[in-house]
C-alpha cells in the first residue's frame, strides 16, 4: 500500500557491485551510523557540509533529518533524491541528485559521501556512474552538474574521469567566511562517449510524475 502512494520506494539502480535505492528506517539508521564513524579524515574539509564540526550522534541525526526533509518537501518542480548506496548488502554512503524544474530544464546537480572505511575501493566512481545512468538514460537529462572544493582531489578526479568540464565557480559561506567551489558540468553527449559499467534501473514506472516528466 505504501509503495502505491510513494512508488519511489521501488526505484532501484544496480551496477556490478552496488545497489542504490531509498532505505527503510533500519537501513537509514545504518547509513547514519556510517556517517557517524566519519566520511573524511578529521583534519580535512573537503565538503561544504561541516562533517567534522559536530559529534558522531549529531552527524547521524543530520543524515536522517536531511533524508526525511527532502522526502517531505518533494514536488515535481523541486526534488532531491537521496539514494543509499549498498555494497555487499550493507549501506556505505549516499549518492544524491537534485533538480528544479527538471521537466523543462533537464538538468540535475549531484552530491555524495562515502564512509571513510570504504574509500579507495572505486565505489565513489561506480555510484556516480549509476546516478548518471539514471539521470541521462532513464530520466532524459541534458546536463549533470557538480560542485567541488578545489582541494578535494578525489572528487575532482572522479568528475574528470567521467567527462565533466569546468563550468565556473560557486561562492558560499562556511563558518562566516566565503569559500569557493569549482563548478563542473557533464553534457549528455560527453556522458554517452564514456566507457561505463552495465547499469540496470528497475521500478521507474509510476515514478515519472514525481520527477516532472511524462511516462514512456
From TrEMBL:
InterPro entries with a match to the protein in the record: Acyl_CoA_acyltransferase, GNAT_dom, Ribosomal_N-acetyltransferase
Cellular-component GO terms for this entry: cytoplasm
Record GO terms (molecular function): protein N-terminal-serine acetyltransferase activity; protein-N-terminal-alanine acetyltransferase activity
Record domain N-acetyltransferase: where: 18-185
Sorted UniProt keywords: Transferase
TM segment ranges: none
Database matches in Pfam families: Acetyltransf_3
Protein name: N-acetyltransferase
Organism: Streptomyces palmae
Phylogenetic lineage: Bacteria, Bacillati, Actinomycetota, Actinomycetes, Kitasatosporales
